[in-house]
Amino acid sequence: MKQRATKDEDRDVRITAFKELARSWRNDPETLNILKQRATKDRETYARVYAVKELANGWHKNPEILQILKHISTEDEEGYVRSIAVHELASRWHADPEILEFVKRIVIIDEEKYVRKNAVQEIALWWHDCPETPSIMKQLIKTSKMGDVRKAAIQELARGWHDDPETLDIIKNSTATDKVMDVRSAAIQELTTGWNADTEVLEFVKHRAMTDKSRVVRQKAVRELKKLWGLEIEESIEGNT
């Protein structure tokens, strides 16, 4: 089994072997070493992913595993592996105050947009009750240079902190001023989902349907107006696509 976990040429065979080792021979000292090796050295992305999961699941009380996963979160060459490691850190070590700071750093430094976006979602999920978290979302909306990060923060703020007095104004501001049309469209979606009983929001969305510089965003606003309020409105035909 150990030979298959480390030497087999087939990725799926290696994965099956080391998963079986983790389940049936967890107390064998070599099992942990094999998983650590597969998590950091295996040439296949999915093998490293499954090894990371097994380490987090079976050895999360081992301080060394925390350090290994932090290393993988920043150093693995594949964004998917880094993202899985961040998820395991957030889900299993969120009571550690240093982990929030670590995941916040991932949002800023990772080179892949989906890793950063997923890190935003992990913060909103696992630290929802932390007083600092809504401020983190607001700051990302205002300052992140990555559209996917701003979009994720808008979605999380709207859904997780709907009743915060600042949330509505922040979402409206993003709808009107964000440079990326996909972010503006997402902000319209959150407005019409979370505040569809607000007449001021209705008027605001009508205005965006007529004036946004992107046809895609105008069309999004028109569809939401028709779906939620039964309104037919002719969008402006001017502006960029």
UniProtKB/TrEMBL annotation:
Any GO MF annotation of the entry: oxidoreductase activity
InterPro entries listed in its UniProt record: ARM-like, ARM-type_fold
Listed name of the protein: HEAT repeat domain-containing protein
